[in-house]
Amino acid sequence: MRYDTGNVTRAFISGKLPKIYRNIKIILSNMLKGKVHTIQDSLLLIQLSEGSRPAFEALYEKYWDQVFNEAYKRIGHRDQAKDIAQEVFTSLWMRSAEIPIKNLPAWLYVVTKNNVYRTMHQQERFVPMDDILSELESYNGLPDAVLIEKELLRAHEALIENLPEQQRVIFRMRYQEELSPGEIAMKLNLSPKTIRNHIGRALVKLKTALMLLLLLFLISLSAVAQKQDMASEVRKTMLDATRFMVEEVSTNGGYVSHYLPDFSRRWAEQEAYPSQIMLTYETTPRMGHVFLDAYNATGNEYYYQAAEKVARALIWGQHPAGGWDYIIDFAGTASLQNWFNTIGKNAWGWDEYNHYYGVPTFKNGATVGAARFLLRIYLEKLDPQLKPALDKAISFFIESQYPLGGWPQRYPLKHSFPRGEFEDYTSFYTFNDDLSWENTEFLIDCYITLGEERFIDPIRRGMNFSLITQQGNPQGGWAEQYNMDIRPAHGRQYEPVALMPGQTVRQIGLLMLFYRYTGDRRFLARIPDAFRWLESARLPVGMAENGKYTHPVFVEIGTNKPLFAHRKGTGIPDGRYWVDYEDDNPLLHYGAKANLDKTISKLKEDYAQLLTISPADVIKNSPLKDPGFHGGRRPQDYFDLDGRKRGEIPKDDEIYAIIKSLDNRHRWLTRNEWITRPYSVSASGEESNTAPLSTEGGSQIRDMTDQQYISTRKYMANMNLLISYIVSRSQTGSR
């Protein structure tokens, strides 16, 4: 007969013989198959979590008798029961701000019971096993209960193995082979009394040890119950916060980055009208990705509907050419032009907002962010209503690409905003803000997920453009803009014609990536030239600030001297920018110097390693080699269209803090944000500087008052952590 360790364990925990094995098995089975039920927090609990002493006193008066009676029933000593009740309420007061308690009577019951058992154990008193077994049903359906039970059973088997040999043999014959004491006595040639004595001693040893194991089992299940309760609270917090953002904050499904709590002002990189949404970083497309992340983590359709609203907002604002500008204005073109003629044109240092072009831009991720989100949400359910806008966006990327492989900042091409002697730079080939790579990467996304061969040629031209634009020796680096003759060119007022060590480091990394994608050694051929130039372009010792910096942001072509941008003034009317060789009072919002040593060292290691790998081996995992999907899964199951890798699983105290920080209107409010300046006209007719609040040198200034703000960045940061928590629990089977 098969020896059932689990049933024997349960029988000996109870102190009874095998005739009740079946009943205990049923109890544990019910425990593992049921559900845990909780109730909504009361107003008193909410007030208690905020440190309200009257709320605590009200709960104390309401539940004191219940806690005391439960403790007294179990321990049978009035003074000890009072002490235990006092400990329970002390724990409630101390931990209410940390732990979201949804079912207070259940919480008090568990904490009381655990304190009773702890007291009994300290006094070496016997805990009634029947009482303990009756508690098992209060942990119905907990996801980790099976694992905890297995650990209990393994510990039981180890205890049996540690019995003296004759006791172990007799014990197994009695409960494995189900022989009677008389039958065992005959087989072992011992008296029945001796057999019963051995069984009795084994029972005493096992029962005492297993009692302690079961106490640990119950305490572990209590902790699991609290985690399950927290998971429910996490989901509720996510949904409450999202409903506020979607139903109170959004404009037709879109967002800017910051709002005053009364919505009297809003802004992203610039102040915005109530009818406007923004497409730059940390705004509308990124919010859409968070909604889809939440949908994938929870399966709640509300999040998908929120993402659909983002998609509809983007489609509404899509330019006929297929791309997007920084701003979508639901009040129409006249309203948008008025914005550019007032707020936009007076944003000192923000050249891209100073003029209304009326065409899409690739800058600051506006078009690629919107297009990438449309691709992702289309792939989620293959909704045919989304396909025309996605197709138009994809065509825009292909049509706007220059034959040599790069892209302009804006398309269709415009030349309508020269500054003095400098021509309009928006038609130039652009690397700035990773524009060229982001566009190429989007086409790779399309090739992987849509599987159309038409993407291969623009992808290869996009990669080859990095080869074309590397300068000749001895200055084998890269600039951020190139004119139509593929010569380094100026950009904004503070972006001179120059080579850039930072961009060069970025291009080295991309060339190695392109080699991994293609196996084409041309992408590795001139990397040593770039390393040599970076070494030659180091800052002079007197400018390195005791080793804090290694390279300037700009390097003059020909002389290899560092260049520094500066500015002076208070706004567009009296402000000016210039570039020289002096590093005193440099322009701060763009940066003047950088420390690139760690990055360069890592790139050199990667380059040396790549040289040892054959082209055939290096492209084994290339997305361009085999975009096919196998095993019946969908493209979105293979590819992270959001482009983000989640970090470490957040800790419980971090999750508690996020839950607690959501206010009673379901807002995560922030302080000390970077703010913009609203547009105004003085009595003398002077227009205000509408650029974000900053010093004369361009360093942005945070509002250090107690003013609170609604921030999409804060919402997304908190949601990402809560989503990571939910995903981590689902991956470990703890839903």
Kindly describe this structure.
This protein is mostly helical and 735 residues long. 51% of the residues lie in helices and 5% in strands. The chain contains 26 helices and 13 strands. The chain has helices spanning 5-14, 21-33, 43-49, 53-75, 78-95, 104-122, 129-135, 145-161, 165-175, 181-188, 192-249, 284-298, 301-317, 333-342, 366-381, 387-400, 435-450, 456-469, 501-518, 522-525, 527-536, 597-611, 615-618, 635-638, 652-661, 712-731; strands spanning 258-259, 266-267, 276-278, 327-329, 429-430, 481-482, 551-552, 554-555, 562-568, 576-580, 593-594, 669-670, 709-711. The strands form 5 sheets. It has a 4-stranded antiparallel sheet with strand order 2-1-13-12. The protein has a 3-stranded antiparallel sheet with strand order 8-9-10, with no helix packed on it. It has a two-stranded antiparallel ribbon with strand order 3-4. The longest helix is centred in the first third of the chain and has 58 residues, at 192-249. The model is unreliable at 1-41 and 126-143 (pLDDT under 50).
- Determine the oligomeric state from the structure: single chain
* Rg from alpha-carbon coordinates: 34 Å
Structural class: mainly alpha
The low-confidence runs, each spanning 5 or more residues with pLDDT under 50, are 1-41, 126-143
Strand order of the largest sheet: 2-1-13-12
State the end-to-end CA separation: 38 Å
* Count of β-strands: 13
The main sheet comes to: 4 strands, antiparallel
Counted by DSSP, the helix tally is: 26
Q: How large a portion of the residues is in β-strands, by DSSP E?
A: 5-15%
Helix content: 40-55%
Rounded average pLDDT: 85
Label the overall shape.
globular
